Structures
1.
Amino acid sequence: MAERAGVSVGSLYQYFPNKAAILFRLQSDEWRQTTDMLGRILADREKTPFARLRLLVQAFIRSECEEAQMRVALNDAAPLYRDAPEAQAVKAAGKDIVQVFMCEALPDVPQVTRRLAGDLIVGTLGAAGKQFSETPRTDPEIAAYADAMADMFCAYLADLNGHQRP
C-alpha cells in the first residue's frame, strides 16, 4: 500500500502504527464521504424530494458497487471501530440529514411515521446495496437496480403522503 501511495513503509507506519489503524482511517473517510454525499443530494432544494431520493439511491448503489472489494477488508476490522465515537457521530449526522429530508418529503405525516420511513429507507438501502454489490455488476445492471429501488421508495413515500408520485 505504501508503494502505491508513493511513500515509504516507514512513513506510512509513522501515521498508522498497524493494519487496524489504517483500516479505521479508510473506514472513517468512507463514512465521511457517504454522509457528505447524503447531505449534498438531500439538501438540494432545486429538485423535488422524489428526484433527490432517486439521485441518492443511484449514487449510493453505484458507490457500493465501486467500493465492494475495499468493504471486505474494512468489514474484517469492523469490530475494532464499530462503536468508536467517530462512528457514532457519523451515524447521528446521517440520521439528522435523513430526518430533515423526511420533514420536507412528508410534511403532513406524523413525526413517528417520518422517522420510521427514514429508518426503513436507510436500512433497506444499506442492506440491499451491500448484498447487490457483493457480485460484480455492469453499469446497466447497477442503473436498473437503483431505478427499481428508487421507484419502490418513491411509491412508499407517495403512499404515506396519500397521493400519487409527481
2.
Amino acid sequence: MMRKIMLSIPLVLQCATPAGAANSTINQALEVSLIQPQADHLYINMDDCEGDAELSMQWRLPSNAAYKNTLGASDGSVFLSTSSTCDSENVPIKSQMNIEPGTGASGSYVDYPPAGETLTVSKAGLSCAGGDEKDYYFCIKFTNVSEVTSIGVVYDVIYKGGSKFRFDVKAPAQPTSVAVLAGDGNVRVRWENASSEDDRAGFTVYYRPATSGDAPREATATGGSATEKQITGLENGTEYEFWVRAYDNTKNHSVESAHVLGTPMPSDDFFEYYKKNGGGEQGGFCFVATAAYGSSSHALVGGLQAFRDSVLLSSAAGRDFVRAYYQYGPRWARAIRGSEFHRALARVWLLPAAGVAWLWRHPGTLLLGVLLLLAGLAGFFTLRRRRRLGVGPVAAALVLLCLLPTSARAQVPEPQPRFQIQFRFSPYAPDIDSESGLAAKPFKTIFGSTEPLSEFQVDYALWRGFGVVSVGASFGFVQWVGKARVQGSSGSDASPDTTVLNLIPLRLTAGYAFDVLARRFSVPLLPYAAVGLDYAIWWVLDGVGDVAEYQDGEGHSYTARGGIFGYHLSAGLKLLLDILDRDAADELYTNVGIANSYLFAEFCASFIDNFGVGDHLNLGDATFVFGLALEF
C-alpha cells in the first residue's frame, strides 16, 4: 500500500556521531523530518489504513557536520526502522534513490521524493491487520566513497538519519457495564474499562433522543482512567440514548459500547427544597457601603467601587455577584440608613472588605507591607533578646545571687507576647431547621449531620495585668455535600444530583484569659472567655455545579448565596504545653520567637441569623472547638 505522512513541524533526529576509522567507515548524521502532515498527525492509524497514503520527507546535513562533501554520493535507500539510529532496515520502501551531487551539504533542506514521485511501502512490513503498536523511524541512508582526509586516507562516509512516527493499528478495548444516572436536566454516564490499556487517551460519549434517528451529539471525557461523564443541557422527561467509545493517542476508536437509555427528571437542590418547605431566606449580602458611610463620595466607597469595576466585573462569577448585590442591596440600604447603630456595625464590617479591595489594586503596597511587618517582627524579637542578654555584669551577679535557689527557667525573663494565632477545629451543623414556618427539616434531610469546620484566628493582646484582654479576627470554611430530592417524593427519594452548601464564617472577637495562676504559680491551665460579631458568607450549588436558583409561583427569582450577621459567645480552657519540656520551650522562644504554646478546648455558641431581624437562614450552632494556639 502507499503511505504519505505530511508534517508541518520538523523533527530533528541526531544519529551516530562521527566514528573512528577502524573499519574504514565513518557515520555522519543527517537531519530528517517528515513534511506535509496528513490530518495533522505523526502516525498511521486504523483510519489511515482504509485508503492509500504517501510518505514524504526532507533531509540535510547538520550545520556542525564534520563531513560535508557529498559530491561522490550517487544512490541511497529509504526505509522504515525501529532503531533511532537507523541501523536496522525493518521495512523497505525503495531500494534505490538518486542523491544529487552536493545536495543538503550547504545546510538547506532537500525534499524527497522529488515532485511527481511516490514511495511504495512493503505490505509485508506494515500490516494493517496485525494489530501492531510500534514506533518507526522514516530513514534515509547513502554512502560517499570518495571522502579523502588531509593525510590521503579514503573512507566510506555513511550518511543516515530518521524521523520518528507511530504505527498503531490496534483499537482500544470496548467500554463495558455502561450505566446512566439521570438527574435534573443532566445525566451521569458511567462505564468500566480494561486496566491494561497503556495508550488509552480518553472516551467519547455519544447521545441523542431515543428513537429519533438524529445524528448523535458528542461529549469527551479526557484521561485514560476516566469512568464517568456528566452530560448537561438535557430536557427533563425526554428519553435519551447513550453509548461510549474509547480512543487512544493515535485516535483509534474502540467498538461502540452497549447502548443504554436514560430520562432526566426534575429534582430540588438544597435551596429549592428549603424554599418549597417555607424557608424565608432570599439571598443577598447584608450591607451597602453608601448607606453605611453616608455618601458615595467617601474614600472607602470609591475604593470598593473601583474594586467592583476593575476586578469583579472582569469575571463571570464577579458579574453574578454584582448583579445579586444590585438586586438585593437597595432594601438593605433602606434598612440601615435610619439607624446609626446599624450603620456603625456595617462600617466595622466593611473595613476588612475595603482593605482587601485596596490591597488587591495595590499589590506592590501589599508586598511592601508584608516585608515591613516581617522586618519589624524580626527586629522586635532581636531587640528583646539583646535586652535580655545586655544586662551588665554587676546586675547579672545581683540577680543570680537573689534567685540562686530558683530553677534555671526563672533566669530567663518571662516573655510578654502580643500576638496569638489559633488553629481551630470543630464539628459544625447550622441550625437551619429551627427556622419557624418550615414544613420539613431541609438540612437534616439532605445533609444529615455535622462536618468539620476549620478556622484560623489572629489575636492581639491589648492589656496585660490581672489576666489578658485581647481582640482578634478569624475566618474559616466548612462544606456539606448531599443528594438533591426528586420532585414529588416529599423528600424521601434521593436524586443522583449532588447539592452543596458552603459556609465561610468571619468573626471579630474580644476575649479575656485568666493567666495569673500560670504566671505566678506555674499552673498550666488558663480559663478564658470571648464574645464577638460574626458575618457568615454562604452559597449553595446545584446538580451541575452552578449557584442554585429558585423561582416561586409569582415569578420572583432568588439566588442561593448571601451573607448573614450574628454574634458568638465562647468559654474554654487552655493547657500550657511549655510545662512538658521547659528547655525545649525556651529554645523555641529564643530561635523562633514562640513564647507559649497551648492546646485548648472551648464551647462556642454562635447565633448567626441577622440578630433575629427578617427571614434568614440560621447559620449558628453550639459546638465544642479544639485546637492549637501559639503566642508571639
3.
Amino acid sequence: MLISAPSRMRRGPSLGSSTTADISSLCRGTLATVFSFYLAGKGTPLAGPIPSALLLAHVCSEWKRVTMLPAYRSFWSNIVVVNPQPFDFHLVKHSITLSGDLPLTVTFGAHQIMNRSGVAWATLQKLMKGASRWKNLSLNVVGTNFPQLPSLPSLECCDLGLTGAWHVDDIQNLCTSILRSPSLRTFIFQSPLPLPHECSPDLTTDISCPDWSRLQFLQLHHTHDDNHLAQILSHCTSLESLHIRLVPPEHALPSAEAIRIPNLRTLHLGPLEYRNTFLSRLDTPNLRALVISPGGARGVLGRDILLDFIDRVSKTSKLKSLAWCEVKDYPSPELLVDFFYHPSICDDLEELELQMPISDTFIEALRGPTQLPPNWRRIPIDRRFIGQPPPHNSPLLPQLKKLRLSGAAMVRCSPDQLGSLAKVRFGYKAGIGREALQQLVFQRLGPSAATPKRHPIGRPGSAGVLNERQDKEKLEAWLRDIDGVSFEAVEVHTDRAGGWLFTVTADRVGEL
C-alpha cells in the first residue's frame, strides 16, 4: 500500500471503502512505526519511488496529519534527491521547513551537468538553505558548474562522489569547503582526478587550510602518489578507520619515510598493484582489523609484503579480525592454508570472513585434528613451522570465535565437510588446543548476485557441492544434527535476491 507510482501518489491513491476503514482504524503510533519502517527503505522494491514523507502525506488526509505532527519531525529530516524533478523541489522545500531545527541527512545526485536555469540547480539552491543543519551529506554529481557550498558547521560525515570532466579548481573549492567543517569526522572521496594538493594538510599556520587531524574515518580512491598520500595520513592523528583504493600513478615517488597512524584500528585495502611501497611504509601500532577487498592482495601476498606488514603490527598489537573477498586471482587453497598458519595470524585471529573460493582442504585444516599428540609443539621459523606435528596436524586459528563463509566461499565445499566443521567447532575440547566457536555464519548469495565465473555455483558435475536447489535444506539438516545446539539457536534469513543466511550463535544455547 505504501508503494505506488509517483503520479498516483501525487493525486492520492484510489482506495476502496474497506481499505479506507482499515487506514482509519490504525492509531497514530502504529502509523508512525510503519512510516519509520518505510522511510528507512526496508521492504521497498528497487524500482519504486524513493521513500519520502511528502509521498506519505499525499496518500490521505489522516496520513498527512500524522506526518505534520511536531512529534514526527524526524520523518522530514532525511532528504533524498536523485536526478531532480519538479516534485523534488517541493520535497526539499517542505522537508527543510517541517524538520524544524533537527540535523539533516542529505543525499543529492545529479547524473547530468547542472544548468543554472534548470530544476536540479534550483533544487540544490533550496537544499543549501538548510546547510547549517547538514549532519550527513552524500553528493554524487557530474562535471563542473557546481555552486560554492556555504559554511557547514554541523557536518560530521561526507561521501563525495565526482564523475565526468571536473576542473582541479572546482574539486579544490568543493573539498576545501567540506574539509573545513569543524565537526567533520568521516570523509569519503571518489573522483576521476586525484585529491588536489591544495586540499592536503599544510605545515604552515594558515587557518584556511583544511584540518585533517579531526577525521576518524577516511576513504580515498585516488591520490597523486605515495608521498602525497603520506602527507595526508601523517596529519590524520585521530584516524581510526582507513579505506584505501588507489589507482597506480604514472610516476611513483619512492621514499623510505614511515607513514605512522597511531590510532588506526581498521584498515581496508583495495587494489594495491604497484603500491607495495605504501604498505611497506605503513606503521599502525594499534591495528585490530584488516579488510581485503577484490584486488587488495594482488601482487603483495606472493612477495610476503602483506605478511611483513602483519608481522610489524604484531609487535605492538594483535590482529583480531580479517575479512577477505576476491573474485579473481585468488590464492590456491594450499597457499591460503599456509597463509593462515602464519603465527601472527594463526595465534591471535578471533573473527574471519571469507568470500572467495575455498575447498575441503581449507575446511579440514580449519576444523583441526580430533586430538593432538601428547608431545605436540610448534616452532615458527621464517613463516614456516618445524617440529612435530607438521602444520596440517595442528589447530588452525585456535582462537577463532566468529566465522563467516559467504557467497563463493562455499562453492567448492562439500556438504559433509561443512557439516563436520559446524559439529566440531562448537564445543571446547582441551585436547585439540582451541576455544569454542561462538558464531558460525553460512551465507548463500541469490541467483542475481555475482559469483566467480570460473566456478559457478551448482555447475553440472559438481556432485556434493552446495547448489541452489539443495543447499538450504541440507544445511538446515546439518545444523539440526549438531550435538548440543537446538535449531532455535539458528537464525535463517532469506533476501529478495533469493539468497539466504544461516547464523548459529553459541551464546543463545548456553553451555555446549
